Amino acid sequence: MDMAVKVFQMKIHVDTRLAMEQTRLAVEQTRLTGEQTHLGVEKILATLHQGPTPSSSPNLNVLACPTPSQYFTGRESILQKLSQMLSAPVVTLFSTNKNALAAFVHSFDHSSRFTAIFLDVSSVEALKAIAHNIKAIDSAHPPSLLILENADASLELDQYLLYSLHNPILVTSTDQAVSRFASPACDFELPDSVDQWAADGLCRSIEKAFNPLLHIVTLVAKGGTGKTQVVLRFVSENPSRFLHVWFFDATSEATLAADFKKLGNAAGINESVDDVQNFLRRMHKDWLLIFDNADDRNVDLSNYIPQCDHGNVIITSRLTEVHQMASPGSHLNFSDLEKTGSWHC
Questions:
Q1: What does the pLDDT read at residue 275?
Q2: Residue range(s) in the chain whose domain bears CATH number 3.40.50.300
Q3: Which residue has the higher pLDDT, 117 or 217?
Q4: Average pLDDT score over residue span 140-166
Q5: pLDDT (tens digit, 9 = 90+) per residue, 52-87?
Q6: Cα 22 from chain centroid?
Q7: 39 by DSSP, 3-state: which?
């Protein structure tokens, strides 16, 4: 069964080098106002993919990730958690008043900077009907806000819907248990009775939860437990997740300096760590820095991680104190797991 979705005024800007025009989606069925449209997911994707083509950039194919070992097995739960941590945020919104919840979500859509795609997830059948479209929506341009309405919190949403890599998700429900699907600090409640001032404040809080931030994930474990292999496998299984992935040898200050020099040369800038950090700050793209084997307490990784509001960082280490660098809810410690559960030769 084709799943219909509702979209509020969607304008797709085609790259100015190709054309100066705007695309407005055709109306299939009017709902609430004449500005709201109903289109199948496939039609939305066909229009979204008319977005701008990426601009040219320096050849930054340096510090490439090694290929994961063919003998790597297991660690599926760790891989799943890592994928969730590096996915777009999942925000949940609960209210006992279904009508007020629907009205708020649609008013929120008008003020949101995202293109909203509404999907009904009230049943297993509905979940199955849209699950195969999530990855396709994920690759579309520009980023969309997936609004999963009428969620039945008793259903295992994460078993049917993969966490979106690029597009934030808002899940609404009249069941407070829906909060268990939320990313850290991303569960909200809409009171039964709320004035405009409070509604505006809630709207701003939800928007803030969707704001991109530098995301740092830390993996701590004993040597030989598969930390690096988990990261390499994650990257290999998600080739389109990041625009650029750079793999740094964090064994020492010397190895880090050498790798930063390589990236600086490739970017056509100076070779210092500061210059490379400034380059990454200016590059408002979804990049990933991997600092592998950060096991030396004398190496302060904070001197190498750019302070900005975008980008992703993964740190692998044997040092338990490294967890202090992780973003909220983004630390993985599996050093107490059996070595034989990680990978075999």
A1: 94
A2: 215-333
A3: 217
A4: 74
A5: 333 345 678 888 889 888 877 777 888 888 888 888
A6: 27
A7: strand
Instruction: Report how far residue 176's alpha carbon sits from residue 96's, in angstroms, rounded to the nearest whole number.
Output: 8
φ/ψ of 89, rounded to 5, equals -65, 145
Fold for domain 89-210?
Answer: Rossmann fold (3.40.50)
CA angle 214, 219, 224 (to 5 degrees): 150
pTM of the model: 0.71
CB atoms inside a 10 Å sphere around CB 38: 16
Q: Which two tokens stand for residue 50?
A: 């008319």
Closest by CA to 321, choosing from 338, 290, 299, is: 299
d(CA 41, CA 112): 20
Topology of domain 215-333 in CATH is Rossmann fold (3.40.50)
Q: What is the pLDDT of residues 87-111, one digit of tens each?
A: 888 999 999 999 999 989 888 766 6
DSSP state of 189: E
Cβ atoms 317, 294 nearer than 8 A: yes
* In the block, residue with structure tokens 């070595």: 339
The pairing of beta strand 144-149 with beta strand 115-120: parallel
Does 142 sit behind a cis peptide bond, omega within 30 degrees of 0 on the bond before it? yes
The two three-digit tokens of residue 275, written as one number: 């210059």
3-state secondary structure at position 218: strand
